[in-house]
Every structure is written in structure tokens, then in C-alpha cells.
Write a structure and sequence with these properties.
2 strands
């Protein structure tokens, strides 16, 4: 059971990001693209475009005292975080 904890935390981080309101139209598009009788949502940004923008690797981590380069933007607090501060330390904003 102990070894499941990191996996559950990672799934929780991913789920929390994908449930953000900025991705609502992206999720609706899946229903439209599957052929269901749903209206096509307006233009939307993908998770990749929002969480991993091209300039993210040129910024430092926003966590106080961290000197690593960021790899992701949290959709909730819109700060840049390195892998250690986001995944390993389990970022919850």
C-alpha cells in the first residue's frame, strides 16, 4: 500500500489540472469529436499549450528558495514550478 501513494498523488495532480475551468471547452470538444450531437465549442487552448508554454523552460521556479528551471505552469495559481516543487513536493495551491 505504501508504494501506491506516489502514484495516487501524481494522478491527483493531473486530475486537478485537467478539471480547471480553462480546459472546459477542450473537454467538451471530445464529445463533439466523438460524434455525439453536441455543439462544437469555441476555440480553446489545449492542456499542452496552457501548462507547457514555450517560454516555461527559460524561467526559474517560482517557489521561494528554489533555483531549478521550471517545467510546468499551474493553471490554478498561474505560477511556474520545477518538477521537484510540483510533483515531488506535491503542489497544492
Amino acid at each position: 500500500m505504501f508504494s501506491c501513494d506516489p502514484t495516487l498523488k501524481l494522478i491527483s495532480l493531473v486530475w486537478r489540472q485537467l478539471c480547471h475551468p480553462k480546459l472546459r471547452d477542450w473537454a467538451r470538444y471530445a464529445w463533439h469529436a466523438s460524434g455525439y450531437n453536441c455543439p462544437r465549442p469555441p476555440h480553446f487552448s489545449t492542456p499542452s499549450q496552457l501548462m507547457f508554454p514555450h517560454d516555461v523552460v527559460t524561467r526559474d521556479c517560482d517557489k521561494t528558495g528554489c533555483t531549478f528551471t521550471s517545467f510546468i505552469v499551474c493553471l490554478h495559481c498561474e505560477k511556474h514550478y520545477c518538477f521537484k516543487c510540483f510533483v515531488i513536493c506535491y503542489h497544492k495551491c
